Request: fold
Amino acid sequence: MSDQKDNSVLAQVEIIAQGLSETFAPFCEVVVHDLKNPEHSILSIHNNLSGRQVGEPTTELGHARIESADFPNIIANYANQFSDGRPVKSTSIGIKDESGKYIAALCLNLDMTLFRSMQSMLSQFIDVGNSPIKEHIEPNGTEAIRIRIDQYAAALAATPRTLKADERKNLIEVLRNEGLLDVKKSMETVAQHLGISRASVYLYAKKES
Reply:
């Protein structure tokens, strides 16, 4: 591949990098490497989180790609860290020329610091104590209906609110056969969990009866 074609490829990679950086700002650093010039491979850094600069050398992964065209095109979601110790989740994508030789790399580095803090806060927020006192503020059995709907949807690689009409009809039959439609306010519970009207649930139930 000629230098002109190489430069054209790099220009396209740069456009992709810009789009990704704008989508995932400010949490994800996106770096474009020119592997034809490993000592000064960094062409651009978007959402600079690592403190590196344009013109700095490539990393170990870059050298591994330069040395072997058989190196994997994509190394996704591997543990990494910035120089100050912040934890990072990284993905590295190699770009080849027409001859199969690596000429560039597109790297994404997601700063996990904020997300881990959010995870810790959410865990604390939803944590419940081990009190022996139990209280139910909704009709008995409605949670069983929700759980069964979730299981049914998960088996179809869907969510309750994305089920199609024929899948909803079959779900109603499943709930009836398992006795869950006999639970007080079952129709209201099903409607709320599926995000549809009670009239629709009654219609599905009528068609299956």
